[in-house]
Design brief:
With about 800 residues, the protein is mainly alpha-helical. It is built from 34 helices and 9 strands. A 5-stranded mixed sheet has the order 4-6-5-3-7. The protein has a two-stranded antiparallel sheet with strand order 1-9. Strands 2-8 form a two-stranded antiparallel ribbon.
Length: about 800
Amino acid sequence: MSLFSKFKLLRGGAPRRKRKREASPGLIQFMEQSRMIAALIFVATVAAIVLISFVGVRSLDTPVLPNQTASSRIVANEDFVFESDALTQRQREQIRDRVPPVYRLEFAPLRQFETHMEDLLAALEGYAAEFPADAAATPAAQQRLEEITTHFNQQGPYRTSEADMRALLNLGDRDQRFAVVENALLVLREIYAEGVHDNANLASGAAGDITVFQIASDNEVSKQAVESLENALTLLRINLNAEGIGRATTLSLFRIFRNGVTPNLVFDQAATTALQQSAIANLGPVTVTVERGQTIIEPGTRVTPEQFEMLVAHRQHVLQSGEARIDEGLQLFGRVLLVLAMLFACTIYIRLKDLETLNSNSRLGLLALVVVTNLAAVRLSYELASLPFFVHNSELAAILPYIAPTALAPVIVTLLIDTGSAVFMSLLISIFTGVIYGNRLDLLVLTFLASMVAIFCARQTRKRSSIVRATTLGGVVVATFALLIGVVDRLPPITVLQQMGAGLATGMLTGVIVVGLLPLLESLFKRTTDITLLELTDYNHPLLRRMQVEAPGTYHHSLMVAQLAENAADAIGASALRARVCALFHDIGKMVKPEYFTENQRDDVNPHDFNNPSLSALIIKSHVKEGVDLALQHHLPRVVVNVIRQHHGTSLIRYFFYQAVGATKTAMNDFHSPLDPGKSTPPLPGLEPVPVSETTYRYDGPRPQFKESAIILLADSCEAASRSLKKISPQGLSELVDKIVADHITDGQLDESPLTFAEITRIKSSFNFTLLNMLHSRVAYPAEPKGKGGREELTAQTAT
C-alpha cells in the first residue's frame, strides 16, 4: 500500500478500488454494426488491393526462365541496345560450320606395306635358291611356297594366293623381280601422295574426286584433289599394264599390290579447330537494337535463350536508367472493376454461408486486414525481382513466386473465424497472386491447393505446434508441384531444387509467423481461438487458483456448470470448449464478496439477514460487474467477458424482490429458496406483492446473445436449483429442469439467443443425464459390528 493510501486510512477513509471498464457499449455496438464503417472497410480494401496488385506491377519484372511457357506479353518500354551473347555464339557456330574440315595424309600404311614387300622378296629369293626351277613342282616346294604366302597374308592381313606368288617368282631373276616391285611401289607412293579416301569416312559423303584440305610441311593449309579408293586401284592397274609383262602376270601383281592401297585421309581435329578459330578471330559481338513497343516475349510460347537474354538486357537497362513507362495491361478503371467483381463475389459468398461475419465489422475488418497484408507480402516478394542482385541473377529470381506466403491469411482466418471464409480468402489471394506474377495459371492453382491443404490441417487446431505442421504440409505441396512443373518445363535441376527448397521453407516460416501474429490479432479484434481457450482450462490460472482459496463453493459450482454446459454444447453442435471455459470463469465476480453467496457460507451465518432487500439485491447483482472487472484486469477473451455479463440476462432476483414487497413472514418461510439467492426461482403462489420497481431487483443484462451464453444461463440455474432437492430421482430432475427452462423462456431471457426449440430439447436431455450422474447417491455403510473382530469385519465389508 502506498504512503498516500495509508494516510487516507489514518483519516478514516478507505482506498477505493478503481474498476477497469470497457468502452461504452453504445460505441462498441456502433463500431461493430455500423453499415457506414462496413462501407469504409469495403472501399479501403478495394483501394488497397488495386494498389498492391496492379499499381507499379510490370510484366518486365515477371520471373521467367528459358524453356518456360510465358504467361503474359512482355514489351520493351524503352529503346535500348545490347550485345547479344546468344546471337554472337550462334554466328560463331555458323562460321564454324562453314569452315570445311581439315585432313592429313597418313603414310604409315604405305611404309608398312613396303616393309612387308621387302620381306616377301627376301623369302622368294631364298625359295628360288632352295628350289630350282626343275624342283618347283615337288611337294616340299609347294609347301614352302604355301608357307610364304600364308605368312605374307597374315602380316596385313592381305589377300594373296599361291598362284599370285608363283607369278611374281616367275618374272625372272632377282633383279627383274626387284625392278617390277619397285615400279609398283613407286606408283603406290604417288597415289598416297595425292591421297586416297573412302566415301564412308568423309562427313560430306561426296563420291568421286573431292576437294579437301591438307596440312603442308610448313603448317599451312592448302587445297588438294584426293582420289577415291576405286580411282586409286584403277591408276595402279594402268601403271602395271604399262610394264609389258603380260595380262595374266599383270593381274597377279595387281592382286598383290592392291593390298597396299588403303584410304590415307585422316581428319585432323587440331588443324580444323585452329582454322575455325582463325575464321572467328575477327568476329565482334552481335549488337541488337530494340525499339520501344517491340515485343520481347509472346504469351503462350516457350521462352528461347535469345528472348530471355533480351529480357535480362531490358531489365538491366531499366535499372541503370531508372525510368520505365508503365502503360501496359489493363487500365486503372478495368483493374478496379476486376477487384470490385471479386469482392462482390466474396460478399455474396459470406452472405450465403456466414451471415454473422457480414454483420460484424470486426470480422470484416479482420478479413480485410489479413487479406491485404497477405497480398502485400506477395507483392513484396514480387518486388524483389527488381533488385540488382536478382536482375543480374535471373535464375535465382525464379524462386520468388515460391517464397510468396499465400497460406498466411487463409490459416489465420481458419483459426479466428471459420473454414468457409478461409477457403474463399485463399481463392481470392491465389487469383491476385497469379495476376501479380503475370497471369500465371499454374501459380494460381498451386497456391490455392497449398492453402487448401493448410486450411484442412489447421481447421481443428488446439496446439500452436499444429499450426506450423499444417503450413509445412502446404509447403510440401508447393515443393512437390515445383518438381513436377520443373520437369515439364525442362528447367535445370539446380533451379528445381532451389524452388522446392523455397516452397518448403516458406511453408514452415508461414506457420511461425501465424503463431506470432495470433495473440496480437486476438487482442486487436477480440477474437478467441481454440488454442487460447484450451490454455484457459488450466486450473492453475491465477483467477481459478484464487477462487479455489477464497470462494471454494463457487469454484465447485463453476466446475459443475462447466460440465453441464460442455455436454449440452456438444449435444447441439455448439463449441463445447468455449462453453466449458466460459463456465469456469462466469462467477469470478463472487470472489470480491464470497460470504454473500450461499455456496460459500459457513456456520449458518448469512450477512443478508442484516441488510434490507434492495442492498442485498445490489450486492448479488454486483458480482457480474466485479466479474467483468476481474476478467478485463486479467485480459480474458471477450467471449468470456460477454458470458460473465450475460449469464443472468435480465432475470429477476425473486427472493429479495418478494421480500421487498412486504410478503408475510409465514409466506417467506414457506418459500423454498435456492442455495444461491441470485438464481431465478418460480414465483410464490398466493403472494400479493406491494408495488416495487422490478428494475432494482433485475440484473442489468444483456440477455444471452449466442448459444454458449444461453446454455450457461440455463446450466447455472439448473445446477444451483438441483442442490435444493432432498431426493434425487430422474423424474424429479426432469421436472426441475423443465420448469427452470420454461420460466426463462417465459421471462424472455432466451429471446435474443439463436437457440431453437429442438436444440433446447436436446439441452434439457443433456442436463438430465449429466445432473443425474453428478448427484448420484451411494449405499450407506452399516454400523460398526460389536464384539470381537468387529473393526476387521467392517473393513472387509467396506473393501468389498
